[in-house]
TrEMBL record:
GO molecular function: alcohol dehydrogenase (NADP+) activity; butanol dehydrogenase (NAD+) activity; metal ion binding; methylglyoxal reductase (NADPH) (acetol producing) activity
Family: Belongs to the iron-containing alcohol dehydrogenase family.
Enzyme class: oxidoreductase
Keyword set, alphabetical order: Oxidoreductase
Organism annotation: Paraburkholderia ultramafica
Gene3D superfamilies to which the protein is assigned, alphabetical: 3.40.50.1970, Dehydroquinate synthase-like - alpha domain
Protein's name in the database: Alcohol dehydrogenase YqhD
PANTHER family in alphabetical order: ALCOHOL DEHYDROGENASE YQHD
Length: 384
């Protein structure tokens, strides 16, 4: 196991009816900006619960944060927060809303051009405090310090993270997920699955706790993912899905182990160019990435085959291939396409995708730093 330091300051408030607990965790004299996405929190009653829990506090709302939150929209929220003298942010939604709120929190206290936080990876030393009410289990953003933001005009999608952008608290009420459309549930399952794989499917370092934890989470997703689609109001299923997605990226399973994240970087470029959902791009890239890098990942792929998919027969090559196929089949069982052609995209954009990777400095990705632009091109070609 590699050396590590693990610290996560976010308080989790989990369970049905816990939105009411906001009153105990938002400062009593706070001026709150509630951020959200497309407006479903209005129709499903979540916004009413949030506002009731805030009581007599001054609050304002900012909606319209996109599924891939854009710099342009978030800077509008920054302007509103300054106009209304906001001193606490409350993200109500899924990972995109929470990612966007992290950026708003950072931009409000950043001395300089906020886009530099992303484009130049300028360190964020301070941010406005914020909490979250999670309504879509997927990204784990409710319990980590990172986010990914797009710039509509530039065609960029870039990550950032800072110790200053951990949520103070996150409320996780599985009931808020009952009204989600199947596409969002499926995307959430795929997103969480790939988050775990990026931290697990690398190379062995005898981190037995992290490996078994990751494998347990992956198996849980293979069980509850299809159930969540078939039984939208099954509280136990939604509770297990929500907590698994949070644990997938709160730093715990990634402590002391090598991490990959090449699948995410290639996926970001597909979203920026073609506008696909984040999870859709991960489902496209991951099977191709595993195929292209099956030799460098062989030991962990064999472990993954046995422990997650119960594949124990056949040669090593056959077991590796079967594990990659099982991954693809699971995504497709969740009704998420696993090839570019499933989204009417051919190979004509590969050169543009590679150019963008080069522009963003993504020339030595992966746990070994050996995912060059040539390897990325091969992955994109395998994904067509």
């Amino acid at each position: 196991m590699q050396n590590f330091t693990f610290h996560n300051p976010t308080r989790i408030i989990f369970g049905e009816g816990q939105i009411a607990a906001l009153d105990a965790h938002v400062p009593p004299d706070a001026r709150v900006l509630i951020t959200f996405g497309g407006g479903s929190i209005k129709s499903n009653g979540v916004l009413v619960q949030v506002q009731a829990a805030l009581g007599d506090r001054a609050w304002h709302v900012f909606g319209g944060i996109e599924p891939n939150p854009t710099y342009e929209t978030l800077m509008e929220a920054v302007a509103l927060a300054r106009e209304k003298n906001i001193d606490f942010l409350l993200a109500v939604g899924g990972g995109s809303v929470i990612d966007g709120t992290k950026f708003i929190a950072a931009a409000l206290r950043f001395d300089g051009e906020p886009w530099d936080i992303l484009a130049k990876q300028v360190e964020v030393c301070d941010a406005m405090p914020f909490g979250t009410v999670l309504t879509l289990p997927a990204t784990g953003s409710e319990m980590n310090n990172g986010g990914v933001i797009s710039h509509r005009a530039k065609g960029d999608k870039l990550p950032f993270r800072s110790d200053a952008t951990y949520p103070v608290f996150s409320v996780l009420d599985p009931v808020t997920t009952y009204s989600l459309p199947p596409r969002q549930i499926a995307n959430g399952v795929v997103d969480a699955f790939v988050h775990i794989v990026e931290q697990y499917l690398t190379y062995p370092v005898d981190a037995r706790v992290q490996d078994r934890f990751a494998e347990g989470l992956l198996i849980t997703l293979t069980e509850v993912g299809p159930q969540a689609l078939a039984e939208p109001h099954n509280y136990a299923v939604r509770a297990n899905l929500m907590w698994t997605a949070t644990l997938a990226l709160n730093g715990l399973i990634g402590a002391g182990v090598p991490q990959d994240w090449a699948t995410h970087m290639l996926g970001h470029e597909i979203t920026a160019l073609h506008g696909l959902d984040h999870a859709q791009t991960l489902a496209i890239v991951l099977p191709a990435m595993l195929s292209a890098r099956r030799e460098s990942k062989r030991a962990k792929l064999l472990q993954y085959a046995e422990r997650v998919w119960n594949i124990t027969e056949g040669s090593e090559d056959e077991r590796v291939s079967a594990a990659i196929t099982a991954t693809r089949v699971f995504f497709e069982r969740m009704s998420v396409g696993t090839r570019l052609r499933d989204y009417q995209i051919g190979g004509q954009s590969i050169s543009t995708l590679i150019a963008k990777l080069g522009e963003h400095g993504m020339t030595a990705l992966g746990e070994h730093g050996d995912v060059t632009l040539d390897v990325s091109r091969q992955v994109y070609q395998l994904a067509v």
